Description:
The complex is a heterodimer. Chain A is built from 14 helices and 14 strands. Chain A is an alpha/beta fold. In chain A, helix 10 runs antiparallel to helix 12 and helix 12 packs parallel to helix 13. Chain B is α+β, with helices and mostly antiparallel strands. In chain B, about 35% of the residues lie in helices and about 15% in strands. In chain B, helix 6 runs parallel beside helix 8 and helix 17 packs across helix 18. Chain B is globular. The two termini of chain B are about 35 Å apart. At the A-B interface, helix 1, strand 6, helix 7, helix 8 and helix 9 of A face strand 26, helix 21, helix 22, helix 23 and helix 26 of B.
Amino acid sequence: xxxxxxxxxxxxxxxxxxxxxxxxxxxxxxxxxxxxxxxxxxxxxxxxxxxxxxxxxxxxxxxxxxxxxxxxxxxxxxxxxxxxxxxxxxxxxxxxxxxxxxxxxxxxxxxxxxxxxxxxxxxxxxxxxxxxxxxxxxxxxxxxxxxxxxxxxxxxxxxxxxxxxxxxxxxxxxxxxxxxxxxxxxxxxxxxxxxxxxxxxxxxxxxxxxxxxxxxxxxxxxxxxxxxxxxxxxxxxxxxxxxxxxxxxxxxxxxxxxxxxxxxxxxxxxxxxxxxxxxxxxxxxxxxxxxxxxxxxxxxxxxxxxxxxxxxxxxxxxxxxxxxxxxxxxxxxxxxxxxxxxxxxxxxxxxxxxxxxxxxxxxxxxxxxxxxxxxxxxxxxxxxxxxxxxxxxxxxxxxxxxxxxxxxxxxxxxxxxxxxxxxxxxxxxxxxxxxxxxxxxxxxx
Amino acid sequence: xxxxxxxxxxxxxxxxxxxxxxxxxxxxxxxxxxxxxxxxxxxxxxxxxxxxxxxxxxxxxxxxxxxxxxxxxxxxxxxxxxxxxxxxxxxxxxxxxxxxxxxxxxxxxxxxxxxxxxxxxxxxxxxxxxxxxxxxxxxxxxxxxxxxxxxxxxxxxxxxxxxxxxxxxxxxxxxxxxxxxxxxxxxxxxxxxxxxxxxxxxxxxxxxxxxxxxxxxxxxxxxxxxxxxxxxxxxxxxxxxxxxxxxxxxxxxxxxxxxxxxxxxxxxxxxxxxxxxxxxxxxxxxxxxxxxxxxxxxxxxxxxxxxxxxxxxxxxxxxxxxxxxxxxxxxxxxxxxxxxxxxxxxxxxxxxxxxxxxxxxxxxxxxxxxxxxxxxxxxxxxxxxxxxxxxxxxxxxxxxxxxxxxxxxxxxxxxxxxxxxxxxxxxxxxxxxxxxxxxxxxxxxxxxxxxxxxxxxxxxxxxxxxxxxxxxxxxxxxxxxxxxxxxxxxxxxxxxxxxxxxxxxxxxxxxxxxxxxxxxxxxxxxxxxxxxxxxxxxxxxxxxxxxxxxxxxxxxxxxxxxxxxxxxxxxxxxxxxxxxxxxxxxxxxxxxxxxxxxxxxxxxxxxxxxxxxxxxxxxxxxxxxxxxxxxxxxxxxxxxxxxxxxxxxxxxxxxxxxxxxxxxxxxxxxxxxxxxxxxxxxxxxxxxxxxxxxxxxxxxxxxxxxxxxxxxxxxxxxxxxxxxxxxxxxxxxxxxxxxxxxxxxxxxxxxxxxxxxxxxxxxxxxxxxxxxxxxxxxxxxxxxxxxxxxxxxxxxxxxxxxxxxxx
Lengths: 445, 807
């Protein structure tokens, strides 16, 4: 068993299993969708129908041991692993990612990436929203978003496609996956169960067997008559009540959607495919993400914990984590390509930060925001590129540095969302979806 | 109505006004502070503040709009009103706005004298202001790129070492200061990952350059140190969107007062009401309410209280009912904000509200009938009195305090956790004064079996005792100060370890009577940085020269529960208030700081004084809160208060807590939930162990008791919650159960109307209105199976906002 405690002593799994969830956004009506496309065309942004899969390695992937190895650095930096050649001439990644080494032409790396935050919680918020957390930030809140998560922006901007929610978080909620001022309609639908479990099913998605479908309709119309507060200004003025009402509408949509039911039925996937992804939480979550995108989900956010390798970094990576990542990510890329979905599905693989170049006394590595390579594929991102470089010890970018704001700009560019777009907070303050400093990492396209 | 002037001017400044005939201008006069400026030393500065007053004496900040000119070359003035010394001399600065004009005499001296700089007083503030020593940059534990500073400059000697000595002094060249790596990096001469924080034209650049040229002086022991920080203004009423420049003055130990605005860091606690830029320029937002803009400089803090009323003035504020002192304070505040309170709640609303808030339980149909039909004029008070002595009152409050005091079976073991819980519960059952409750917990000793309060120190790790104690009982978070000076408060490491030293004597020892908690010996607590021993002392007090004799916790307990203690009574009063009103007067309730002030200080003060007056009688406090018109307001909104969630102008919706909601569902269906390892029929609010597995409680956000934070309870509703109430097979089973309430109602009430009435009273504690009755009875009549149809009605009720929230 890998360590499941984060360094702040709180079992993140405990915190997460309460699974704050949310409804999916119906933010765009048809006229506004057309208007949106017209605006995009006018601004020169390509409006192709793109989706996003985030594979978030929470705790912090050690990129110096994987994507950005430093074999020539002193031994207290370079670590135990050996770089191996990939199918790109001259490019090496870790020996413990052999499957990915064979398909490096399908994904790209940004090695001159980093940011100035090395705390769990704050760094998560930074990486997933593009904005650093401000005063009063409380990482323990569920959700803790001061700015909307990238998935919430995508769900809100692009709206649902078919009967499935546009933004899904799995297997459980990430604390920074929330929608902030985009409101309850933009929060993710949280699966709330491990797709690798033999009896996996999304809890409470269907009414109990005893309630026949005709009766469900009766109940719904009856529920509409018990509405002392539902329609009133009171509901509008009370945030919780407002959210609850929106969620109820969304819940009924979810329950009645055949597409949703089918997408979540991972058991219908051939056994050989499931094996290929890896019979573990990460592998099956990635497989589920592909199924969800296929069904119309705009952003599937796979949150995998356990990457906070303060102790025995090398042992844990080699024996536990990297084999899982290798199988899951290589299968996901191959699968998307085989199905002709890779061009329209961007995949991002990252942690909230990298890990300290200098190995600590426990044969581990600590948090390191200033340098952490990220991996991207699909959705317009060209495979086989390695952009930028870190310095000789992977302590910081050595070439033009990129950060979370640039990552957001890049994702929105790929998704056909104008990076200049602004949202109004409920108080009427305009906030751009990408902070002013963010610029598209154009070398990827 | 004349608006009160809330622009306070520091006593050192004399207002000097030249009233100029101002035909057709908005401003009748302008005032500039300070009235005269005296600057000592090179590059000293003073932020002028220019205020215009209209005919009714309403102030407007004109600092950034006024025109500045100066008579001689001894100073320069920026467009934002910063006067800076250039050379010795006397002169004047003329401030002009429209036709109004004020002349300020300016004296400069010692601009050429080589005042010896002091590393800690002159250099570290620059590193802090430009955020060089934050945890994202060089303040990180590993440093940044080989250069490490102590976070927020808490360890000046280490920083001196790093800058002046490390790498054989490669960062500084006193012979050629400009060539110093330190200056080249920060000013763009050499590539720097952190950008170019300070350009060579800035006075801060010159200060660092001069310090290097002076041969890197550490400074003298005799150099003046900072004593306090004061902001001008400290209170201000803003129109929406209005701006205000701030000035921050430091008082030094030699009595001098210097302007440190440019080196002060500013932050707001509520961006909806006010934002502030790096130079201390505040802009009010578009939502009415209050905010605090905090200034920090060298570990000292001060705060501007921002008050943003609704734009539209309410000409005649209607008389609203005032039941007790709470209402005076709330209404005063609402008047100032131009917000009208909602009306009173009706009896039906009051009944359900007060049951849920006080005892975490719905009223039964019978209880509802009795209350609603009673004609007694004081029936609300009677009800409160009845509920205060109900068993569920103690149970419910024991649950809430068990969250804070962390009753955790996994950490304490089954038997211990149960003992600990029972001790808490008995406290509420006996209405033990809360100061006594806290004192008993704090000084617990002896065999744990006899003194289960001592398990607190087992539930909390030894290194977290001081911070957990402070957060729970004082509402003050000091854990930052374990490693460095609290960035938003006045607490330093010494304060933290002074608190920690109270608990250093504690040990658990085995004995024949089981485990025993002892406070013995005279262990020394050391300051982790300086290595000096720190004697136990309480927050905000002086450290004594000797460690207290005997059990040190007795000293802490006496301090905490003394009537003049600034925190304990306020904290408990505020937490209790927050539970009933849905929001603390200080929010978050466990983050009391000068820089996070109460939204209604007079109210908090009064509530806290009252609590002391009644000798910490918890039930008395609860009753007084509930008897206020403020608590008994309707949830209805009016156009003036629809955006107000801060000032208690209406009753805020509160989602039922996980345990309360599960109990409510069990109660209306007449089917108790089954929990592992507890007697059959136990209610969720009776669960002393927060790790009893239960999917419902998990989805609805029961806290795990891993921290002392109130925020462990999930803050927002979720789709999973909605889906669960809609579809859970477990709930369906309760609805349909052979021995459940719905079957009983079906049997007992043959008449459909009567049956529906009973269901409404059971679930909502009210009678159905005509429309509701027609819809529900219609559903029963159209159905082939009356039992199933009744289930449908209850199911619909359970999924309504009216059921899921307290209102």
